[in-house]
Design brief:
216 residues; NADH Oxidase; 13% strand; binds flavin mononucleotide
Length: 216
């Protein structure tokens, strides 16, 4: 499947077949896409909670009450639900861990190269600290990973539903995310469309090409 074919075929699944699960290798491919996503200065300010079983999905569904109740059946019936989270702080310990990983992965030919990378990354981090938009900056990185996940699921023919419609505070409490230094941002259900998935039969709707692009 070409990238264009995947983009044209993907749509937001509105009802899942609860009988069908994902193959372990499909799950691993999707997790790879999340973990290997690009992020500004390789900051990787994320953590993702993966629910493959009914018990985990039920815990997530507890945060789809009130105005979010329309998302509850998708969370319960999908084969998997991933809670995409971001860090609450982009602290020194995290920056040191990223640098140590880059060193362990063989990215630095010298101590000087390592120090340069650290300095350059911390420069961007400091810019965002001063601008007061560190959280917004981190969230952008997580959404970039979400985009890759949606495209990858489409390439594998797996249905997906990105969902911002849930109670963040309730989910953070349910999963103990605050104590771990994270907060939930967006959910992604994954699985197989059911017969009652009305969105499968609707045409895709997007603004026209000439409005979306200008060429210089
Ligand atoms: C960040 C984000 C949050 C979304 N939240 C929800 C949601 O809570 N529930 C839902 O059914 N769809 C949700 N959607 C799906 C959008 O409504 C959908 O992507 C959009 O209408 C375009 O349709 P398509 O994905 O079928 O092409 C969300 C999509 C994105 C990207």
């Amino acid at each position: 499947m070409t990238p264009s074919q995947a983009a044209r075929s993907r749509y937001t699944v509105k009802a899942y077949d609860p009988q069908r699960s994902l193959q372990p290798d499909q799950v691993e491919q999707l997790l790879d896409v999340l973990r290997l996503s690009a992020s500004s200065v390789n900051s990787q300010p994320w953590h993702h909670v993966v629910a493959l079983g009914a018990e985990g999905r039920e815990r997530i569904a507890r945060a789809t009450h009130g105005p979010y109740a329309y998302n509850a059946p998708k969370v319960r019936q999908a084969a998997a639900v991933i809670v995409l989270c971001m860090r609450r702080e982009l602290d020194d310990a995290h920056l040191a861990a990223v640098l140590a990983q880059e060193a362990a992965d063989g990215r630095f030919a010298s101590d000087e190269a390592r120090a340069n990378q650290d300095r350059s990354r911390r420069g961007y981090v400091e810019q965002h600290r001063q601008a007061g938009d560190t959280r917004e900056w981190m969230a952008r990185q997580v959404y970039l990973a979400l985009g890759g996940l949606l495209q990858a699921a489409a390439t594998l023919g797996i249905g997906a539903t990105p969902m911002e419609g849930f109670d963040v505070e309730a989910l953070d409490a349910e999963l103990g995310l605050t104590q771990q230094g994270y907060t939930s941002l967006v959910l992604c259900a994954l699985g197989w469309s059911a017969a009652e998935d009305f969105n499968a039969r609707l045409p895709k709707s997007r603004l026209p090409r000439e409005q979306v692009f200008s060429f210089i």
